[in-house]
Design a protein that fits this description.
Elements lengths: L4 H9 L10 E4 L4 E3 L13 E4 L2 H6 L3 E2 L16 H13 L7 H8 L3 H12 L3 H19 L4 H7 L5 H12 L3 H10 L1
Parallel strand pairs: 2-4
Antiparallel strand pairs: 1-2, 1-3
Length: about 190
């Protein structure tokens, strides 16, 4: 390994993701090895071994960390990505359900605060904003392609009433559902 142990140790202390895949470190007392970016508790320096690759760490009897998953092939593993994907898929499939942040957080098994913060970090919007976008897209499709009334569409896509439906629809499209339908039917 070309890098000096002091530089490797500095990368571990700072949780530097740019070193992921370049080296790994193992903790002698736990027999667990991690990526440099792992957010687990920083071990004592005297308890750390450095490895060029995950295979070397496993050959020396270390187990992969369950938090940073150094055994996966990706150079960078993000533990939040799978559940953000799960929440997105859930909202896309079950957009018609009356989701609240608390109900959604219980469904995916995390606190509402953490769900809100992480989802927004990864998608750029809150779960509610994401859900409303899906609902409006489906409402646009139904307004253009179905004979359902606006009220029926409102409830079909999961809004609790016409007032929130109209408000959200206008926010996303710049038009009321009625004006949108008239515009679509003219074409």
């Amino acid at each position: 390994m070309r890098m000096q142990p002091e530089n490797l140790w500095d990368a571990v202390i700072a949780c530097r993701a740019e070193y992921d895949g370049i080296f790994y470190y193992g903790v002698k007392t736990t027999r667990i090895f991690c990526r440099p970016s792992c957010k687990s508790k920083t071990p004592k320096r005297e308890n750390v071994d450095f490895f060029i690759n995950a295979r070397e760490a496993m050959e020396k009897g270390y187990r992969p960390c369950k938090r940073c998953r150094p055994d996966l092939l990706e150079a960078v593993y993000d533990p939040h990505e799978p559940w953000v994907r799960e929440v997105r898929e859930l909202l896309e499939k079950e957009y018609h359900i009356m989701w609240t942040l608390d109900r959604l957080s219980r469904r995916v098994g995390m606190s509402a605060f953490h769900l809100q913060r992480m989802f927004k970090k990864y998608t750029g919007m809150s779960p509610k904003q994401y859900l409303n976008r899906i609902r409006v897209e489906e409402a646009k499709r139904l307004l253009a392609d179905s004979g359902q009334t606006i009220t029926e569409i409102c409830f079909t896509v999961g809004f609790p009433g016409l007032t929130p439906f109209n408000r959200v629809f206008r926010r996303f499209t710049g038009r009321s559902p009625r004006a949108y339908r008239k515009l679509c039917c003219r074409k």
